[in-house]
Amino acid sequence: MIDDKRVLAVVPARGGSKGIRLKNLRALGGVSLVARAGMIAARTPSIDRAVVSTDHDEIAAAAKKAGLAAPFRRPEELSGDRIADWDVLHHALLATEAHDATIYDIVLMLQPTSPGRTPDHLVATLRHLIEGNFDAVWTLSETDSKGHPLKQLVFLDDDRLDYYDPRGAAIIARQQLQPVYHRNGIAYAMTRDCIMEQRTIKGARTGAIIVPELAANIDTEIDIEWAEFLIRRNGDPLDG
């Protein structure tokens, strides 16, 4: 609980990942990704309840060992690769509230594929949500200027090359670029109203926590190697 707000953490971990088979069970530093999310949640006192949303029994078992509850299974219609985060969180919130006979004020999504999170990240996100009177708060990382939208290129129908955004033609130096940010998956905090009434994970008033550290967000084998490198260089968040 934080400022009298009950917090439900949801770890979404379906079994049907395509880039890496059973990605959420993949070990990083000897600990599976789903277990890492559960262990960090367990070390965050502000979290009242932490559950896994999965359709896979092996993932559920690994999550339970790491301290996550698995009071429900995600239904098949919410287990595809084109299901929105809101659908998963809405189902998890209602299912957990029905199981616990409790209403939760805040939903905190912890994606297993972002293993660099610490309890401090989660508390800062929750604190910003409450103190800023936001509907939602996301953690972000600054995008390297090489990936800036104004530097991106596309092929047109006749195979000619052009800028993704025509304004890119005027960019000469990176100093001209306004910083842009991308979601790193470390944490998404949303009020219950944002989920239930606005029916979105990005409410009318959404804020952000900028994470200055380099962060891995795992989709491919190369991302696993990057995450392992960051652990070797910066230390394992689980050792903190």
Q: Do you know the CATH topology of the largest domain? A: Spore Coat Polysaccharide Biosynthesis Protein SpsA, Chain A
Anisotropy-based shape: globular
Count of domain modules: 2
Gross CATH architecture of the largest domain: Alpha-Beta Complex
- Provide mean pLDDT, rounded: 96
The assigned structural class equals: alpha/beta
- Poorly predicted runs of 5 or more residues: none
* Distance from first to last alpha carbon: 22 Å
Order of helices and strands: EEEHEHHEHEEEEHEH
What's the alpha carbon Rg, rounded to whole Å?
19 Å
**How many individual β-strands?**
10
Work out the helicity level.
25-40%
| Overall CATH class of the largest domain | Alpha Beta
CATH superfamily of the largest domain: Spore Coat Polysaccharide Biosynthesis Protein SpsA, Chain A
SS field, number of helical segments: 6
Instruction: Give the amount of beta strand, in percent.
Output: 15-25%
Largest sheet: 6 strands, mixed
The largest sheet has its strands arranged as 4-1-5-9-6-10
